[in-house]
Amino acid sequence: MCNLYQTAKSADLVAQLFREPLRDLTGNEPWPEDVYPDRTAPIVRHDGDELAVARARWGMPTPPMYLKTARDPG
User: Fold this and answer.
1) With CB atoms counted within 10 Å of each terminal CB, which end of the chain scores lower, N or C?
2) Are 9 and 43 in contact (CB under 8 A)?
3) 11-50, pLDDT tens digit by residue?
4) CA separation (Å) from 28 to 2, 45, 67, 71?
5) How far apart (Å, rounded) are the C-alpha atoms in residues 22 and 15?
6) What are 46-63's pLDDT values in tens digits?
7) Rounded (5°) CA angle 5-40-3
8) Are 5 and 38 in contact (CB under 8 A)?
9) Organism's domain of life (predicted)?
10) Using CA atoms, how far apart are residues 39 and 35, in angstroms rounded to an integer?
């Protein structure tokens, strides 16, 4: 499967893109270089009144008519 997505190296670099400080909730684990659906990756989200970088399972949901199981594999 071809991968078109890569992560920035740190929350500081992501904060530069948004031009405002971000709260880093990713912990001290290194960020993965490549991002694949159904795996964790750093995302930017609203956390109250500020932006935060957190790790979350990444991907688009599968339309219900194409799901073969109760769990959506992404």
Assistant:
1) N
2) no
3) 777 778 777 788 888 887 777 777 777 788 888 888 888 8
4) 28, 19, 35, 29
5) 6
6) 888 888 888 888 777 788
7) 25
8) no
9) Bacteria
10) 7
